[in-house]
Amino acid sequence: MSHRLTVSIVSIVSIAGCASIPPLPSTTIVLAEFDASRGAITSVAEITPHAGYNNQPAFSLDGSHVYYVDDVNGGTDIVRYDRASGVRTRLTNTSEAEFSPTPMSDRRSLSVVRVARPTASGEDYTESQQLWRYDSTGRAIAPIIGMRRIGYHCWMSDAIVAVFVVGNEERGEPHTLRVVELTSRQSVTVARSIGRTIRMSPQQRLTYVDKSDSTRWVLMSIKVGDEHGTPILPMPRGSEDFAWLADGRVLISTADGLVLATQTGSAWAFAPVSGALPLRGRIGRITVSPDERTIAMVITRETR
To answer: Which of 20, 78, 96, 215 is deepest in the core (most CB within 10 A)?
Structure first.
């Protein structure tokens, strides 16, 4: 994204584990054409026209649609945006709250973080967060795993899912990263004090941001069977949102805009992505289309 604006890290309600749930921020989602060779964005367009919470975009596996969360009706539901026609289809309209829509490999399902008690607060809310499978029409099918307190997730394979488990602030318990094998239902905790973004790298390793040192956040990787993560690169100060490119570069949203991190030998260089956004705000979550020609960004609107 365009980088002289002020980009942000939009935290959603699902990582709260304390006495009350903070209000959802006012955010919008924009799409921009991306030239990876030049590190530039153009043709930036807002796809969520109404005010309120619009967040967690995810491209369909063929790149033709963008799934995202919005709260236009007072509760968070899943919307599908058709990139060719511009048509928005509300897939869910439930008494529960849905977050983190993620297309599954069968191309007929979405994995979704479902909050069974969205009007509750604190631990009652957090304990009702679970990973569910929904069909392509937005119908809830069944829980994928029995584990609760799930904030975010990432598929490592059809049989293995990594989940961000919300900690308990009152007890001093940090957020943890767990890897779950679906067949055996066994899970293992592989990291603690992590950021909200978890993604697979081009080398098919699970990557996340280690926030255990508040002065130095680090992008880490781990594969199934590893006991500890391996450091990849130091993140720009305050940055926890990132996306991988197929060539191994990392796109990161920072306090000043988007940057591309490129590795040469053992060193990493950070270069700003050029281009301009049509509105003032801070960039938070980012995701790249399968063909790497489009970026979806979440912008927290500036208040004046």
So the answer is: 78
